[in-house]
Each structure stands twice: as structure tokens, then as C-alpha cells.
From TrEMBL:
Ranges annotated as spanning the membrane: 34-54, 75-92, 193-214, 330-353, 365-393, 405-426
Organism whose genome encodes this protein: Cyclocybe aegerita
Signal peptide: 1-18
PANTHER family for this protein: TRANSCRIPTION FACTOR DOMAIN-CONTAINING PROTEIN (PTHR35043:SF7)
Origin: domain of life: Eukaryota
Name recorded for this polypeptide: Uncharacterized protein
Keywords: Membrane, Signal, Transmembrane, Transmembrane helix
Amino acid sequence: MAFLHLLVTSLSNDLALASPSPRDTIDHIPDIRSLSSIIYSCIFTVAGCLWISVRPNIPSPNHSRLRILRSKLNIMFWVLASPDFVVFWAFRQWLEASILAKKYRDRGWTRTHGQFVIIGGFMLYSEGRPLQTLSVQKFNALLSEGAIEFPSITESEIRARGQQSPILTTIVGLQALWFVIQCSARFSSHLYVTHLELLTLALVVITALLYVVWWDRPLDVGHAVRVDLKYDYPGLAELGEERTERYDFIREKRIRGQARKLLAPEPPAVKRSRSYLSMAFSLLFRVFIGWPFLSIIEDVGALVFSVDSASIPEGSLHPPLFYCPETSVIPYHVLLPITSLLGCAFNGVNIILFSSTFPSSGAELAWKIGTLVTTGFSGLSVAIYIALLFNQIILVRFSARFLEIWSNVLLTLTLIVLCCGFLAFLPARITLIVDAFVCLGSLPETAFDVVSWTTYIPHFS
């Protein structure tokens, strides 16, 4: 993190020293764009695409608007930082929603109903008070036991509960379409494409994929549908919450536990006198190092492996942020390599600008290192998943004790490598975003030329 701080400081100094292009102040000349229009179009495009594509779960009735916004911003952060993880999570939800739609097809259910259950669409009530949000497992179990009535809600009623504005969606769609067309036109016309525009273009493609996967998922639903419990059901807390996966993620939980002890240790049972300097240092460590890193580790565990996010805790009035039920065996060995390859493509596209203009050698080095680290991490993930797949095949054929021990060692080393690699991946990703803005300080003249016919497409810039 200290390296990242020094690098960002150096890059910011480069931007401050770089002289603005004379074309930045010439907004009235035809077929010429300004630096501000480049920045505004990228920011508006990214913000709009994120807002309509990110669809969080239904919040608790007790949640404030600030907490609801924070949950959505948390998912947006991960789309910016590691979109392949979010796509992997969204696609697993899509699979579970498809299973639910098939299960209750004779009752008129569609994938929209399945997604509605997954986002916490049904709240269990008893004697007029809410007990908890129904997980997919508990919903299925209570229905099979006859403890609840089958909810009668149509697909149109579910969509009406969402807050998706057709006008805003159309505006963002036109803006994204214009952005893709004008970037493609610039590439084909051999006009300069800025680093910020390339990052934005990649994000537009990713958010479009996310929008398609979550097409059946209503946007920003505020309240769940009430489902009444017919009678007191014994053992309600444990009903239907078992996981179907044979892999229980014990290693992931142990690594997360060790990280929690290291980054956010419990206060000692016996209080001892400490200096003000020691307490201040401990507070700063928790706020700026411990809490961010621990949040990242827990979010990655929930996003990728559904650690503590495959079920809804007893009495909770909302699902976990990255909730994804596991009512069937999910083909991790297929989905993880595919999404990692998507991450390779998303980060590897930055190689296109390796030979472009940079304001300084530091900015050029930062762009190349950031690209290689992010792309390399995704490539390493693919290689590891393939190695684990072959290892599993060997274990099926040869069940010798030595091979089992080797498998445990390999899995543990894999988790350690992935955790350490991700700690390098995230700063590298942030460096790329910062560097994209820094590179705007020294642009060639062709960066301000426009393809004239693209200006006739409605857009904001």
C-alpha cells in the first residue's frame, strides 16, 4: 500500500506539471472536442451503466437510505475493481433463478420470480410480525411442508415493484451505444483513444453483460411480499439451510479467521495501560489497513465461494449483500475458468495502448505494470483452476493416501497464492484508473479530433 501511495503521489505531480492542450479551450471549432468533454462523457457513461446494471437485494425495513445506497455502492466498487467476480456471482444467481422457474413452472413462475426470491422478495410473518426473509432453501422447504401458502404474484407485479425508469434506461442506453460507436470509429480512423476512454469502453461491455444476466431481476425493490406462517413450525431455524455442495470451504473460513485475528484483533481480556501514541497507532491501523483489507477478504469470499452468503441467518430481515443460494451442484470447475478468462480479456485490452503517448516515463511504467499484474492474476487463476481440475481427476482414479495429502497441500497453497495475488491485483487496478486520468495531462492533437458523423448520435459530453 505504501508503494501505491508513492506511485499515486508521483503520478499526481506529473498531472499537475503537464501543460494543458491548446485545444482544451477551443470548444467552438467544428470537429474538435475538449478535454472536459472527454472526462464528462466517460464519467457519465460509467456512472449511468453502473446505476442501471447493479441491482442489489431488497433491504431490511429498518435500513436507512444511506445504508441502502452504501450497499449499492459496494457492488459498484467491485464492478469497477474486479468485474469478472461480479459476473460470476450474477451468473450463479441466474442459474438458481432458472432452477426455481423450472420447479414452479406449472404455477406460472418465470425466471423473474426466481430472481425475486433470491433478492429477498418474500418475508415470513407470524402473528402479524416479521420473522425473517425467506431464503430459497427455506421457501422450498416450507412449501413442501404446507406451512405457507404459495404466493400469488405475477411477473408484471414484480416488475412494477422495481424502480427502473424507462426514460433513464433509454438515455443511458443511447449514451453507451454512442460511446461504443465513437470509440470504434476512432480506432478505425486511426485517431487517438485516451486511456480513460479505453477503460470506460471495457466497463461498458462488462456492465452490458451484467445487465443481460440480471435482465429478469427487478431494480431497487424497496419492500418484500408478506408470506404468513400457518402454524408454529418446530426447527424453523435449521429448516432447509443445508448446502448441497460437498465442499464446505473450511480452508477459506480458516484463512479468513486468521486474517481477522491479524487485521482486527479482539481486545485483551485484561486491560493494560497503553500510551496515547500506541492507541492512536492502533486506531489508524484498524481504520486505514485492518478494516479495508478485512472487508476485501470477506467480500471476495462471499462473491466467489459464497462463504457465509449461501443462506440467510435466522431472524435476518434482509439477505446477505452477496447472497447466492446453492440448491444444486454449481459447476465451479467450468464457471470459474470462464469468468477468469473474461477477466483476462477485460484487463488485457489495456495492452493496446502500450505504445501510446504518456506524460512521463513513470505514467508509462505504471500503466504497463498495472496491466501485466491484473491480466497476470486472471491468467494465474485460470491455470490454478485447470490444475485443480486435473488434480481432482487423479484423485478419482487413484485414492492413495499420499495423493489425498498432496491434494490438501495443493488446495491450501492455491488459496494462499490467490489471496496474495489479489492483494497485488487490487492496488494495480486502482493504479490503472488513476493513471488513466494522469495521462489526460499530455495528449496528442489527434486526441481532440472527432469523427464528424458520430456527433449526430444523441449523447452527453
